[in-house]
Amino acid sequence: MTTSLAPRTAARRQPSPSGMSPLARKRLSRAALNTAGVLVFLFAIFPVYWMVSTAFKTNDQIFTTDFIPIPRELTFEHVERILTEGVAGNSIWVYMRNSAIVALGTVLIGAVFALLAATAIARFRFRGRTSFLILLLIVQMIPAEALLIPLFLNVKRLGLYDSLLGLIVINVGLTLPFGVWMLRTFVAAVPKSLEEAAWIDGASRFTTFWKVLFPLVAPGLVATSIFSFITAWNELVFALILMSDSSGYTMPVALQFFFGQRGVDWGAIMAGSTMMTIPVVVFFLLVQRRMVTGLVAGAVKG
């Protein structure tokens, strides 16, 4: 028996035709993947770095033909000018407040409707269910610009023109199909046996939904909330069309005032863009910790 296994063992230990052992090939492939990951990270992070660095460069460093990756002289001129002078006769904090109201309102309202709709689609069988799912995909394929005139007329007919509530309603409508489609997958992945076990223990449907299903779907809810927040925070076209009073503008609209006929104030634009990025990062840091804890919380509480 030992004699018959010896040739096979020796064959396994022989190096490959390329002269590399399996362990060396594994290490080489891992190093290649790590290198590719680092290159992708640098490619993704460079625009953010350039935005932040430009916000603290002097005008001489910005408007030059030389490549200056690191500011030679730091200045807070652009940030101070935005904070003190404001934009279009209003403080920059007015636009930040409007963007926060619209983004948070979109997240809260959209999350409630998306979770309820996703639960109904994943847990119940009703006529038109498949057609509704196909309709969600079709809506995602339609450009938002194609819906601009119909949505504008409906918002004006409802008396929501020139109001933040109108912007919230529009953004909820734009992000809701994606939220329903994503949350449907999370709800469908939760075993029905967990809910049935809770019903046997005497839990009501609401208690089962809140203490069993909701914690397990929380990671998907966080993912859709991040998508909705970023979409509403960066939305420009509808905020520009549906708002006539400058005091109701959001940050993306406010930054458009730095594009003038005589030139572009890149320092102020980059400083304002840097300020716009901070709330998105803070929101992600606040909610990302719940993505992992929600995976097992429902099974434990149920």
From TrEMBL:
<dbReference type="InterPro" id="IPR050901">
    <property type="entry name" value="BP-dep_ABC_trans_perm"/>
</dbReference>
<comment type="similarity">
    <text>Belongs to the binding-protein-dependent transport system permease family.</text>
</comment>
<feature type="domain" description="ABC transmembrane type-1">
    <location>
        <begin position="96"/>
        <end position="287"/>
    </location>
</feature>
<feature type="transmembrane region" description="Helical">
    <location>
        <begin position="208"/>
        <end position="230"/>
    </location>
</feature>
<feature type="transmembrane region" description="Helical">
    <location>
        <begin position="165"/>
        <end position="187"/>
    </location>
</feature>
<dbReference type="InterPro" id="IPR035906">
    <property type="entry name" value="MetI-like_sf"/>
</dbReference>
<dbReference type="GO" id="GO:0055085">
    <property type="term" value="P:transmembrane transport"/>
</dbReference>
<keyword id="KW-0813">Transport</keyword>
<protein>
    <submittedName>
        <fullName>Sugar ABC transporter permease</fullName>
    </submittedName>
</protein>
<feature type="transmembrane region" description="Helical">
    <location>
        <begin position="100"/>
        <end position="121"/>
    </location>
</feature>
<feature type="transmembrane region" description="Helical">
    <location>
        <begin position="31"/>
        <end position="52"/>
    </location>
</feature>
<keyword id="KW-1003">Cell membrane</keyword>
<feature type="transmembrane region" description="Helical">
    <location>
        <begin position="266"/>
        <end position="287"/>
    </location>
</feature>
<dbReference type="Pfam" id="PF00528">
    <property type="entry name" value="BPD_transp_1"/>
</dbReference>
<keyword id="KW-0472">Membrane</keyword>
<keyword id="KW-1133">Transmembrane helix</keyword>
<feature type="transmembrane region" description="Helical">
    <location>
        <begin position="133"/>
        <end position="153"/>
    </location>
</feature>
<dbReference type="InterPro" id="IPR000515">
    <property type="entry name" value="MetI-like"/>
</dbReference>
<dbReference type="GO" id="GO:0005886">
    <property type="term" value="C:plasma membrane"/>
</dbReference>
<feature type="region of interest" description="Disordered">
    <location>
        <begin position="1"/>
        <end position="23"/>
    </location>
</feature>
<keyword id="KW-0812">Transmembrane</keyword>
